[in-house]
Specification:
5-stranded mixed beta sheet; alpha/beta; 37% helix; 5 strands; Nucleotidyltransferase, domain 5; single chain
Length: 122
C-alpha cells in the first residue's frame, strides 16, 4: 500500500501532513481524505534539520517503510530548497520531491474543489 507525506518547513515550526486513507474509494469519487497533521516547534534547531529528522522518523515508524511512500516537501525559495536538500542528504533520505510552496497550495485547493470553475491548470 502506498502513502503520502506532505511537509512544510517554516521558520518556527515544521508541519507534517498525511492523508488518512480509510476510504481509498472516496478519492476516486471526488472526496478528499481526512488529514493527520502534526506541528513540531523548531526552537534553537535549524528548521530544515527538524524537517529531515521528522521525515526520517515517520518513514522508519511506518508499516512497510520505504515501500510506496511518497514524500513532498514544500519550499519558499531556492535558498530554502538548497538547505532542505542538504538536511535530507545528512539523514540519507533520497526518495522525496521538493515542491514550490505556491504550487503545493494551488494543487491542494484545486483537488479539493475549493477553486470551483477557477481551478488551477499548469
Amino acid at each position: 500500500m502506498s502513502s503520502v507525506l506532505g511537509v512544510t518547513v517554516g521558520a518556527s515550526a515544521v508541519r507534517l501532513i498525511r492523508p488518512d486513507l480509510f476510504d481509498p474509494e472516496g478519492i476516486t469519487k471526488g472526496r478528499l481524505p481526512d488529514f493527520q497533521a502534526r506541528v513540531i516547534a523548531v526552537g534553537a534547531e535549524r528548521p530544515e534539520d527538524v524537517a529531515a529528522e521528522s521525515i526520517s522518523a515517520v518513514l522508519v515508524g511506518s508499516a512497510g517503510a520505504g515501500q510506496g511512500y511518497a514524500t513532498g516537501v514544500a519550499y519558499r525559495d531556492e535558498a530554502q530548497a538548497s538547505v532542505v536538500q542538504a538536511a535530507m542528504a545528512r539523514q540519507e533520505i533520497g526518495n522525496y520531491q521538493l515542491v514550490p510552496e505556491t504550487l503545493a497550495a494551488l494543487t491542494f485547493l484545486d483537488a479539493s474543489g475549493i477553486l470551483g470553475a477557477h481551478g488551477y491548470r499548469e
